[in-house]
Amino acid sequence: MKQDMILITGASSGIGRAIALHLAAPGAVLHLGGRNADRLAATARACVARGARVLARCQDVRDAEGMAGWIGGVGSLDLVFACAGITASTMVRRGGGPRESVGQVRRVLDVNLGGVVNTVLPAMEVIGRQERDGRGIRGRICAIASVAGLVAFPGTPAYCASKAAVDRFMVATGGNTARDGILLSSVCCGFVRTPMVAGNDFPMPGLTEADAAAIAILRGVAAGRRRIVFPWWLVAGSRLMDLLPPRWAEAYYNRQPAGRPGSMPETGGMSS
């Protein structure tokens, strides 16, 4: 897998940072994007120490014009990783059931889904103009979805919806772009030890270290997998749960500590 020219959003922490560190090597050029300038600079320094050339940019993935200008101006791209994302849960309301605020729903969808679209579409334009390699491949694009996108979890409705849309968009679109030599991958992973889950005070089954997650993702991308899943048993169980009638699934979910109203900040935690 050619990996000389790389672009990563959400590179200032979590999975994005871990992927950047794994790909940092002499000869590699890393275009790293994130919103937290200090954390992004720290990632850049760590990658430079490993021999890579780094071009860092503070960029909000919700800014479609800014993203198009950034990605369209970097030159050729071998690998693109859309890793920026946020999560948040419902909150208890006075005199009513748990709900997400309007602002929270829009922000989660704008970052998690809009941010991926704002990354993937201009990246496809750039990669589509490149020459194919010996295997007919022009470049690869990977977006981080979630096992949450496979279920209708009442504790995190907007997050589930955003990740479901990311997964379906990447998998479905990838069937078309593969003909043009652009390989798309969606990552449906469980809990990964990142700042996004640092405040969770409930058990997280299958918790994966960020470094191990990056390795699994890079292997899947190199193999050209349309959907990369881990841990497999959690993903398989989630798919089975989603086959149940909604009320049956909710009866189980509502007894779990994960994602209960107020278990995560209302404004969400940015992973970029």
From TrEMBL:
GO CC term (a single one): membrane
Superkingdom of origin organism: Bacteria
Recorded GO MF terms: oxidoreductase activity
Keywords, ordered alphabetically: Oxidoreductase
Family as reported in the entry's similarity comment: Belongs to the short-chain dehydrogenases/reductases (SDR) family.
The name this protein goes by in its record: SDR family NAD(P)-dependent oxidoreductase
Lineage: Bacteria, Pseudomonadati, Pseudomonadota, Alphaproteobacteria, Acetobacterales
